[in-house]
């Protein structure tokens, strides 16, 4: 995975709210560890014809989470020493006592170890989540969403920009794809905007047409989220909002659907093979990659179990040199502000002051962490009685210029 020791700043200090763990019964984090992760192990077992060694390792991981303590990586693992250092406070203790962010990251690293992803042998480099990613790209819904791009080809550039930003924001919602200006920003249910914080105007103020700087996009999920991200990147380049875009993806399989380079290739190919406007966009993206105007990065830190406050110096320097860094998705948001039980009105600008340059978060809410909300908005959400923080029915765009 590489070494990310160059991280400084622990995020610890007096007066900080507690780090989220999986201890609390009924909490979202506990549900992930106690229910989602065991279910994922079973899904991976069923998706591949693994041999006895892989099956035994998966069964052992399943038992360990429920009944044992956190065990170290196997002696042959290339990054065993690194994870021993990162987990020195957690290895040997129950999984549910570890910080949620660390436990999730380590679970996926252990899962890769169990299926032989990093080991010598026939299963080396085989993404255990690939069947789930490919199934999403091959569905009729993706084809329908790509056809919707034809409608956006005839609207103004400003209307198109607004619609594409909203499509990227809501891209991991299974029931929302590309929409024209009339539907911009609305969840598929047709209720209120669903945005608990809306800095879209600030974002476009940083990236007006003709800005021609470098924009970094830190991707989240592949498939039906990455395709809208790529279409938005194409628009930024085509209309001069950026002269160059650097797309940051994961260096290995992570959180089931997180995008890797192979997933970018699959999505670009899917766009390029589509008829109409989608195919034209796919061709432009391919040309932009060939010309270096769309560049890919896969830094090891994106699979490390830490907040962005601890990013290493080389990544900090790269992100600090651009016009704007756009972070996609829920996990990136947790890493950006810190995976803690922050009061919802905590200042987003204050928590991201460490970030090297202007930063924007585009996120559908699927976990407990949220900051930067207006007190009145927060009060109304809390009174609603709904699981608005974790259900994916709400989203936010927050920018620190």
UniProtKB/TrEMBL annotation:
Assigned protein family: Belongs to the damage-control phosphatase family. Sugar phosphate phosphatase III subfamily.
Cofactor: Mn(2+)
UniProt keyword Iron, yes or no: no
Superkingdom as given in the UniProt entry: Bacteria
The protein's name: Damage-control phosphatase ARMT1 family protein
Annotated PANTHER family: DAMAGE-CONTROL PHOSPHATASE ARMT1
Catalytic activity: beta-D-fructose 6-phosphate = dihydroxyacetone + D-glyceraldehyde 3-phosphate; beta-D-fructose 1-phosphate + H2O = D-fructose + phosphate
InterPro entries linked to this entry: ARMT-1-like_metal-bd_sf, ARMT1, ARMT1-like_metal-bd
Species of origin: Streptomyces glycanivorans
Metal-binding among keywords: yes
Keywords: Hydrolase, Manganese, Metal-binding
Annotated ranges, domain Damage-control phosphatase ARMT1-like metal-binding: 33-374
Pfam families: ARMT1-like_dom
């Amino acid at each position: 995975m590489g070494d990310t020791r160059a991280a400084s700043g622990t995020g610890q200090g007096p007066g900080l709210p507690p780090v989220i763990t999986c201890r609390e019964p009924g909490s979202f984090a506990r549900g992930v560890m106690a229910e989602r992760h065991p279910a994922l192990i079973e899904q991976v077992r069923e998706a591949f014809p693994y041999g006895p060694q892989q099956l035994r390792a998966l069964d052992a991981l399943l038992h360990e989470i429920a009944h044992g303590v956190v065990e170290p990586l196997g002696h042959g693992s290339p990054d065993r020493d690194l994870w021993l250092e990162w987990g020195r406070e957690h290895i040997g203790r129950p999984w549910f006592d570890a910080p949620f962010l660390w436990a999730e990251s380590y679970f996926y690293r252990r899962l890769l170890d169990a299926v032989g992803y990093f080991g010598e042998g026939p299963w080396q480099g085989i993404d255990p989540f690939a069947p789930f990613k490919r199934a999403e790209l091959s569905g009729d819904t993706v084809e329908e969403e790509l056809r919707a791009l034809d409608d956006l080809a005839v609207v103004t550039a400003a209307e198109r920009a607004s619609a594409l930003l909203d499509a990227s924001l809501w891209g991991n919602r299974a029931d929302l794809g590309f929409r024209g200006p009339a539907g911009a920003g609305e969840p598929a249910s047709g209720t209120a905007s669903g945005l608990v914080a809306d800095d879209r105007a600030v974002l476009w103020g940083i990236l007006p047409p003709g800005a021609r700087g470098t924009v970094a996009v830190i991707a989240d999920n592949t498939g039906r989220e990455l395709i809208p991200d790529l279409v938005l990147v194409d628009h930024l380049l085509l209309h001069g909002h950026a002269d160059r875009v650097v797309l940051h993806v994961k260096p290995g399989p992570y959180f089931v659907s997180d995008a890797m380079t192979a997933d970018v290739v699959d999505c670009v190919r899917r766009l390029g093979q589509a008829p109409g406007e989608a195919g034209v966009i796919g061709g432009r993206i391919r040309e932009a990659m060939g010309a270096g105007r769309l560049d890919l990065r896969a830094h090891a830190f994106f699979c490390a179990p830490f907040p962005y406050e601890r990013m290493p110096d080389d990544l900090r320097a790269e992100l600090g040199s651009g016009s704007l860094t756009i972070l996609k998705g829920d996990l990136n948001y947790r890493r950006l502000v810190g995976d803690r039980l922050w009061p919802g009105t905590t200042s987003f600008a204050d928590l991201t002051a460490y970030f090297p340059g202007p930063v924007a978060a585009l996120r559908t809410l699927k976990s407990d962490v949220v900051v930067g909300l207006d007190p009145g908005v927060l009060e109304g959400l809390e009174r609603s009685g709904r699981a608005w923080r974790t259900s994916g029915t709400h989203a936010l765009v927050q920018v620190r210029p």
